[in-house]
Amino acid sequence: MAYFRKVKNGWRAEVERAGVRRTATRPTKAEAQAWAVAEEAAILAGTRGEYPSRTLAEAVARYRVEVTDKKPAGVSRADNLRFDAWLRDYPDLAGKTFHKITGEDLAAWRDARLKLVSGSSVLREAQQFRPIWTLAVRQWKWAGQSPWKDIKLPTKGHARRRVGGWEEIRLILRSAGTSPRVAPRTPQQEAAWAMLIALATSLRSGEILRMSTTTVDLKRKVYELRHHKTEAVVGARRVPLPGRAVRLLRVLEAQAVNEKRESYFTISDASRDTLYRKLRDRTMVKGLRFHDLRATALTMLSKRVDVMTLAKISGHKNINELFNTYYRETEEAIAARL
To answer: N or C, which terminus of the chain has less Cβ within 10 Å?
Structure first.
């Protein structure tokens, strides 16, 4: 925005755009206005080499509002947790002026993270953080270029191979006091029931917890999934439900109707995560993440349906990802069937 005022030797123009403030005096008001227009354009284009003194933390805050918070709930929660950890664990980087962040700064972050997590985790985090610079350079005009091009990121690691064994699953269910014939009565039992549904349907945690009497049609055996990870690409999904899943969901539907609520579950995704971890650790089951249950379910379903049907169930558009990441049958198990 530009301001003009009459001074002794002409007209003084004041320009403030994108946090940059410039002033100049010209003999006439018309010249002052012309200068202001040109200066505003130059500031926004970054040709003056001047950028607003905003920090990385401020850039993350703006990116959250404009991008992250518009994603599906489960995805935005995961992204926000990574942002929180990034700003908390690397305060010097978070407080640095955004356009002064260099490739050396990001390389230092990369090396520090590699001491704590795998290369795949660092790559995943970088892929989330890097688009902030894309917006900042192209739209916000907070920087002239992205420093990410100056560093080398780790290569993607091998896919996980962990699947849930039935002995492990039974241990966790017994620990929660859960039976597939009896509706859950405690938050911990709800977390265990989410496990059962995951194994029967291959759905993600957030997708399971959004199941309700209005989105699940047990007669047609279809779950209308209105919000999911790939919603922006494919829109709403209609997920076919296996017979075992329908039997389990009948128990939850009867409970929901009896308690006069739509949702099958009352716990949040964050609560489910905490409760599941407690159950798993209490039974000393090592390394079984909740998301591994999705791979376990898809591996079991792959023995009963063809790959195109499996992709329809899982919602994968990339068959290679389905095969390389979620199909986890061991070579020994395959050999035993040959």
So the answer is: C
Q: What are the sequence ranges of the domains in the chain?
A: 2-45, 56-147, 166-337
Residue 236: which pLDDT band, with cuts at 50, 70 and 90? confident
Q: Model confidence over 68-118: pLDDT tens digits?
A: 998 877 678 889 999 999 999 999 999 999 999 999 999 999 999 999 988
Q: pTM for the whole thing?
A: 0.66
Question: How many CB atoms are located within 10 Å of the residue 297 CB?
Answer: 24
Contacts of 182 (CB under 8 A, 6+ apart): 251
Determine contact, residues 273/205, Cβ cutoff 8 Å: yes
Q: CATH homologous superfamily for 166-337?
A: Intergrase catalytic core (1.10.443.10)
DSSP sequence for 210-261? T-BTTTEETTTTEEEE-S-TTHHHH-SEEEE--HHHHHHHHHHHHHHHHTT-
Q: Residue 116's beta-bridge partner residues?
A: none
